[in-house]
Design a protein that fits this description.
The complex is a heterodimer.
Chain A: H1 2-14, H2 17-20, H3 25-30, E1 43-45, E2 48-51, E3 54-57, E4 61-62, H4 73-79, H5 81-84, H6 96-115, E5 123-126, H7 129-143, E6 150-154, H8 159-170, E7 174-178, H9 188-194, E8 199-203, H10 217-227, E9 230-234, E10 253-257, E11 268-272, H11 300-338, E12 342-344, E13 355-360, H12 365-371, E14 375-376, E15 378-379, H13 392-396, H14 401-404, E16 407-411, H15 418-437, H16 440-447
Parallel strand pairs in A: 4-14, 6-7, 6-8, 8-9, 9-10
Antiparallel strand pairs in A: 1-2, 2-3, 5-11, 10-11, 12-13, 13-16, 15-16
Helix pairs in contact in A: 4-11, 6-11, 7-8, 11-15
Chain B: H1 2-14, H2 30-37, E1 52-59, E2 64-73, E3 78-87, H3 90-103, H4 108-111, H5 116-123, H6 130-155
Antiparallel strand pairs in B: 1-2, 2-3
Helix pairs in contact in B: 2-3, 3-6, 5-6
Classes of the chains: A alpha/beta, B alpha+beta.
Chain lengths: ~450, ~170
Amino acid sequence: MAAAAASRLLRRALTPAVARRRFSTAAVAAETPPSPLPSATGEEDAGMVSMKGVRISGRPLYLDMQATTPVDPRVLDAMLPFYLSRFGNPHSRTHLYGWESESAVEAARASVAALVAADPKEIFFTSGATESNNISVKGLMRFHRARKRHVVTTQTEHKCVLDSCRHLQQEGFEVTYLPVRPDGLVDLDHLADAIRPDTGLVSVMAVNNEIGVVQPLEEIGRLCREKGAVFHTDAAQALGKIPIDVEKMGIGLMSLSGHKIYGPKGVGALYVRRRPRVRIEPQMNGGGQERGIRSGTVPTPLVVGMGAACEIAMKEMDYDSRRISALQERLLNGIRAKLDGVVVNGSLEHRYPGNLNLSFAFVEGESLLMGLKEVAVSSGSACTSASLEPSYVLRALGVDEDMAHTSIRFGIGRFTTEAEIDKAIELTVRQVEKLREMSPLYEMVKEGIDIKSIQWAQH
Amino acid sequence: MLRAAGRRFLRLGSEHRAPTVAVAARGYHERVVDHYDNPRNVGSFDKNDPSVGTGLVGAPACGDVMKLQIKVDDATGKIVDACFKTFGCGSAIASSSVATEWVKGKHMEEVLSIKNTEIAKHLSLPPVKLHCSMLAEDAIKAAVKDYEAKKAKLAAGNAETTQTVKVATA
């Protein structure tokens, strides 16, 4: 009898846990699915979330709106029918599925155009702002390669613009990377000097993703019009947040992104001026969709999502802007009330309020992020980038190298609440104080030693 | 006895999740997080105390500065206490914290043989963070060197304390 019990025990032990359960749909539905990726073991027990060696009680507060935004539920409502029932290809000309899909795409196009005061014929859908930037920079210059050989851009542009320019340099074009002032804004006189008769494109982003500064688009547009260069702006972070008017701002090309305005990821748009016509060479060849500018099936659900997001942004831009400004003030004042040595990176006046990039003196960015595991924010510190270089944007601002290592970017959005801001203040202050206790630099400053006078031993 | 053995078998059988070696491709090892959350030996000794050696290495421009101090028993040459302060990422903090733990109770010559690879292995540092452990090794050496320099100076009868902060080169 003992042998029977033992053999039963042994059999139970040796059969895998999954096989032991009885096969029924209820059991399968109730079973928690195993983690699909072997490298990211995320287990949840009693509300605790554990991932990558970090245990926190619940999901972190999301304050990284510049990286991406949650999809607005109203946008998702608009998108779903186009996945489930109205799933036709908008280029199918022969049946209802195609026709209704096409009309949805055109309606979305009109919504996007309305938000930037453009004509719907000037909006082309792409896979995102990165693709739009690529088409703008490379497409325009390659079309005009005979007469226009020069591009002007700034040092704080998004990587995709800078990389496209570098690619053009390899093709034989010349590129001027303009420095910016310490407050992040481009110097208009330097810009005027840099534009030459053979300058085809001037590319200056509207709102910077790292520091949030808003460039003087109207002035830049006027300058470009006078000098006969096309003005391209990467408005991924600006769409729906600051008012954009392509006529007033003299914009010739503009890149837009869906997932920065509470829309879906994987879609963006490109604005191409028709009067006077801006000519570009398509970078995606194929069936000639999107008037030949960008071949490929237009993803109806994503495009409908972007259109819905733009419509909502048009209605709610003012309200959001006021609310987010108030939250930004709350955050900055809350932190400044309890900590000294807090520096705002980039101009505070010419800034989109939802982006607050702060440097905390004597505290390193990655260690601060490690302590702020209950708040999702990002940093411009070297350790958080793959290379050990601090953020190139902060360096372009002329921020001291030791301060470039200490920056944290807080992103406030439509769904951020006061309670989240208060909690973020509390956690940030606590972590900064703890790290300053641990910091030899803080200790030296308290003793009255001037850190800049020390000769550091290089590695 | 059989039941206990069976229970052990059962526990073995139920572990069909991925192994709990928390070395993800770009995550922190548990030990690094532990040293960060509960740092050991954070603090400062009096710089001018003759039995204290101070090692200050790194540069703010690189994003890493470590100050490691050791308190040495003059008679035996043993390190009786150690403390640290670090400006740097989580791995740098953990490396210096580990360094202070390891030097306590050891002889000065012994600690000179602590290698950065041992610290890195203990914390499972990824390749991009190896320089943090290198800095910790340098900090230990610098602290020992500083103590010996102080001892030599005292022995030479020179009791003048330097005004400017000098950084010991590793």
